[in-house]
Design brief:
Structural class: mainly beta
Strand order of the largest sheet: 3-2-1-12-11-10-9-8-7-6-5-4
Strand content: over 45%
Helix content: 10-25%
Order of helices and strands: HEEEHHEEEEEEEEE
Shape: globular
Length: 222
């Protein structure tokens, strides 16, 4: 049994503190560019990329359409979560109540607009996301984070898509390891590498992919 250390009436503020502890880019983010590569351990494909202020990724020198799309998707997925939106903008139409606490963290049960969603929070970090998105149920569990000194970034986490009715697994659980670095001293933190794999029932690694981003530099805002 885990002892609750916060009062129920503080649930919204408790969740808000974790939400605002996520790392996001400043409003003057101008974009960045560099080299990119993809490998599955057998093949390696390299190219260049740029991510604009509008968060649109442009990939060059990669002809494989699937790899081209996959690299672009990783960049966009990371960037969209770096956009700073106030708690009120994102959750203003939701209500929050505590559920049960466990080793993952305090359960936050959502009511209102996004009723049916749930989160868990521990040490001002959102350790579980349980959200209904585009007709699917997605469950994300965060194990480790990177502390930027100005908010946290998820480092080791899993992602799983479930049928919202039956709760059956739709795609298999994917495991991520992200490495972020500051673009320059005091600058925005950006993705340097991401590995994604699935595990068999026995725990062996399947379908591993590694995305790497190097020679990174800012795009001039002038």
């Amino acid at each position: 049994m885990f002892t609750r250390q916060v009062r129920r009436e503080d649930c919204t503020n408790f969740f808000k503190a974790a939400y605002e502890n996520r790392y996001t880019w400043e409003s003057d983010f101008s974009g960045y560019e560099g080299s990119c590569s993809w490998t599955d351990g057998t093949r390696e494909i390299t190219g260049t990329f740029s991510l604009g202020q509008d968060l649109k990724a442009t990939i060059k020198d990669i002809d494989d359409e699937q790899i081209h799309k996959s690299i672009s998707s990783q960049l966009w997925e990371v960037a969209i979560h770096r956009v700073r939106r106030s708690f009120e903008q994102t959750h203003g139409k939701n209500t929050f109540a505590f559920g049960e606490a466990n080793e993952i963290g305090e359960e936050i049960i959502v009511g209102g607009k996004n009723q049916g969603d749930k989160y868990r929070v521990k040490n001002d970090i959102v350790t579980m996301v349980y959200r209904h998105i585009h007709g699917n149920l997605i469950v994300i569990l965060t194990k480790n984070v990177t502390d930027t000194g100005n908010g946290y970034l998820s480092k080791n986490y899993s992602s799983q898509y479930l049928d919202p009715i039956t709760k059956k697994d739709l795609k298999g659980k994917s495991f991520y390891q992200d490495n972020f670095i500051p673009l320059f001293e005091g600058g925005p933190w950006v993705l340097a590498s991401r590995s994604i794999h699935q595990e068999s029932v026995e725990g062996s690694i399947l379908n591993k992919q590694v995305f790497s981003f190097s020679d990174l530099k800012s795009i001039s805002s002038v």
